[in-house]
């Protein structure tokens, strides 16, 4: 290696050290951390992010939640990707933004596989197949087997709703139809809440929704849970089987976690991971998340990066099979 290259390498290493030290100093100096949530306030993702922001106040200082919704989460995720990699801007990566949207949208403003550095997964929430309770009673549908039998005996009579084309509920519904060998018309709504309201009003027959959103109406007897979409049964819904008990390997969970811009130095990622993992493992967090029927999942940065990569690979096939596209 010639002298010029040695000088360039030494200069680059020195610059990286200065950058890393200055970023760490910025955090230690008390500058607030901005945590971008790529969805509107009030949903489970926003609530859990705010809960963690409170828990890390002593270790990281003030964490400000910045809601940037729109385009299925792409606007907020893009803001995370393009932020300065100094540890002062981090954000939420979710099933949609980092596993589904790369295959759903014809044009993406960011690269889900290259533009982010994982900090830790935060949450896993089972999805649940729910049917309007009154419709279930009318059609004598008490189990998953009853629903499948009715659909086969009455082709094209059932429909189901989701939060939109390419949403987790839509993709899970298409997987279910394919594995069960049935047909049900998909009716997309402008978000999960309108889809649930349509189900409660009897406009659609069944939905596959995340458990955190569906649980209050299941408890109230307005919705009947027939199956969860996780590999295993959920302790929150005793007696409700997983779809995998009928269709081997069936698994679509809702998840989200924390990421930083890709070039964020490793010492900063490690510092953030340590603080947020401690917050996720706190008994108070488990209790608070449990009220949302959300399971805290603390991981290393490498584990979360690997998990997101495996989810992208899985959803590439699911989105292709569904035929869903957003131009």
Automatic annotation (TrEMBL):
<dbReference type="InterPro" id="IPR042100">
    <property type="entry name" value="Bug_dom1"/>
</dbReference>
<comment type="similarity">
    <text>Belongs to the UPF0065 (bug) family.</text>
</comment>
<dbReference type="Pfam" id="PF03401">
    <property type="entry name" value="TctC"/>
</dbReference>
<protein>
    <submittedName>
        <fullName>Tripartite tricarboxylate transporter substrate binding protein</fullName>
    </submittedName>
</protein>
<keyword id="KW-0732">Signal</keyword>
<feature type="signal peptide">
    <location>
        <begin position="1"/>
        <end position="26"/>
    </location>
</feature>
<dbReference type="InterPro" id="IPR005064">
    <property type="entry name" value="BUG"/>
</dbReference>
């Amino acid at each position: 290696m010639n002298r010029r290259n040695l000088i360039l390498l030494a200069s680059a290493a020195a610059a990286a050290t200065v950058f890393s030290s200055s970023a760490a100093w910025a955090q230690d100096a008390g500058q607030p951390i901005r945590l971008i949530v790529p969805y509107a306030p009030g949903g489970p993702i926003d609530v859990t992010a705010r809960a963690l922001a409170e828990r890390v106040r002593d270790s990281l200082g003030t964490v400000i939640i910045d809601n940037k919704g729109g385009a299925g989460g792409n606007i907020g995720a893009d803001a995370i990707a393009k932020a300065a990699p100094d540890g002062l801007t981090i954000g939420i990566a979710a099933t949609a933004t980092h596993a589904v949207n790369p295959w759903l949208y014809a044009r993406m403003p960011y690269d889900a596989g290259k533009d982010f550095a994982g900090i830790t997964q935060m949450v896993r929430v089972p999805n649940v197949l729910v049917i309007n309770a009154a419709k279930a009673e009318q059609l004598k549908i008490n189990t998953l087997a009853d629903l499948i039998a009715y659909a086969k005996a009455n082709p094209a009579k059932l429909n189901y709703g989701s939060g939109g084309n390419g949403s987790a509920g839509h993709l899970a519904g298409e997987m279910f139809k394919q594995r069960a060998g049935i047909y049900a018309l998909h009716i997309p709504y402008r978000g999960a809440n309108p889809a649930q309201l349509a189900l409660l009003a009897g406009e659609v027959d069944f939905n596959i929704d995340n458990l955190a959103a569906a649980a209050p109406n299941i408890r109230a007897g307005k919705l009947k849970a027939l199956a969860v979409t996780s590999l295993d049964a959920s302790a929150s819904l005793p007696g409700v089987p997983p779809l995998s008990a009928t269709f081997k390997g069936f698994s679509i969970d809702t998840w989200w976690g924390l990421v930083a811009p890709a070039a964020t130095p490793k010492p900063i990622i490690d510092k953030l991971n340590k603080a947020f993992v401690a917050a996720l493992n706190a008994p108070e967090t488990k209790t608070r998340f449990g009220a949302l029927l959300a399971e805290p999942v603390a991981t290393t940065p490498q584990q979360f990066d690997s998990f997101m990569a495996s989810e992208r690979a899985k959803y590439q096939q699911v989105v292709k099979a569904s035929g869903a596209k957003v131009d």
